[in-house]
C-alpha cells in the first residue's frame, strides 16, 4: 500500500494553533514583566497555555498518524487515536489545575499530569510494538509535520521536567535546563533533516 | 467544519467510519456491507473524503480507505452515534431517518 501524504488541512490549523499559543505565552510573559497583569494571574495564564498546547497537538495526532510506521501496518490508527485522546484529556486536566488549584500545588500537580499522559501513550505504543515484534518495527516514518510535532512534544515533556526542577531545586537549575534543550535541539536538527530527506527519497 | 457536520449527519457514512475503526478497508469491502448502489457508495466516500474524515490510498486496482479523524472530529462522531444526529433534510415527514438511495 502506498503511504499517504500529510493532510494539509491538519498541518495548517495545527501550525496556526501552535503559533497562537506561543504568542499568547509571550504576551502573558510581557504583561507580567510590565505589570499590566497580576504576576500570579499571568503565570497561571502562561502555564495554562502549555496544557492547551498539549490539547491542540493531541487533537491532530490521529489526523497526522504520528505513529504510522514506515511499512504497512494495521492498528496504527488505534494507537494514534489512543495517544490523541490521552494528550487531549491530560492537556485539559493540566489547564484545569492551573485555573483552579493554588499555584504551589499546580506547580507540582500539573507536570505530573502531563508526564502521566506521555507515559500512558508511550506504554500503549510499546505494547503495540511488543505484539508487532519489537519497537523497531513500528518506528514512525519521519516526515516534516511528524518531526515538528515530535519535537514539540519532547519540548513539552522537557518543560514539565523544568516545572519539577523549579519546584525542587529552584530557578537556576530550571534556567540551565531550558538552555540545555535549545542546545540539544540545535545539535540533533541536522540529523533530523537528513532522516526526513532520506525518508522522502523514493 | 460544516463539511464535517454534513458527513457525520448520515447513518451510512457513520457506519463506514465505524467499520474503518478496525483498520483500513478496500472500497469494495466497505460497499459490500451496504445494500446501496456503487455510485451512491462512491458519493458517500467522496463526502467523507471532502470532510477530511477519511483518506484513500491506491493499491493496484483497489482503493483503500483509512480513518483520518482528529480527536475533536472523533468526539463529534461519538456524539452523532449516540444521539442519532441527522440533517433536517434527511428526515421524513414523520421525523424518522430517510435512507434514500442516491441521496448521499
List keywords for this structure.
heterodimer; A: 202 residues; mainly alpha; 6 helices; 81% helix; B: 104 residues; alpha+beta; Arc Repressor Mutant, subunit A; three-stranded antiparallel beta sheet; 3 strands; globular; disordered C terminus
Report on the architecture of this protein:
- The complex is a heterodimer of chains A (202) and B (104).
- Chain A is mostly helical.
- Chain A has six helices and no strands.
- Chain A has helices spanning 8-34, 39-64, 76-100, 103-132, 144-168, 171-200.
- In chain A, helix 2 (39-64) runs antiparallel to helix 3.
- The relative contact order of chain A is 0.11.
- Chain B has a single domain, classed as Winged helix-like DNA-binding domain superfamily/Winged helix DNA-binding domain (Arc Repressor Mutant, subunit A).
- A three-stranded antiparallel beta sheet of chain B has the order 1-3-2.
- Classes of the chains: A mainly alpha (202), B alpha+beta (104).
- At the A-B interface, helix 2 and helix 3 of A face strand 2, strand 3 and helix 5 of B.
Q: What are the SSEs and their pairings?
A:
The complex is a heterodimer of chains A (202) and B (104).
Chain A: H1 8-34, H2 39-64, H3 76-100, H4 103-132, H5 144-168, H6 171-200
Chain B: H1 2-8, H2 11-20, E1 25-26, H3 27-31, H4 38-50, E2 54-59, E3 62-67, H5 71-83
Antiparallel strand pairs in B: 1-3, 2-3
Helix pairs in contact in B: 1-4
Task: Please provide a brief summary of the model.
The complex is a heterodimer of chains A (202) and B (104). Chain A has 6 helices and no strands.
What assembly state would you assign to the polypeptide chains in this entry?
Answer: heterodimer
Amount of helix of chain B: 40-55%
List the helices and strands of chain A in order. HHHHHH
- The percent of residues in helical segments of chain A reads over 70%
Poorly predicted residue ranges of chain B: 92-103
Query: N-to-C SSE series of chain B?
Result: HHEHHEEH
Number of strands of chain A: 0
Helix-and-strand structural type of chain A? mainly alpha
* CATH third-level topology of chain B: Arc Repressor Mutant, subunit A
Distance between the termini of chain B: 18 Å
- The termini of chain A sit apart by 14 Å
Strand content of chain B: 5-15%
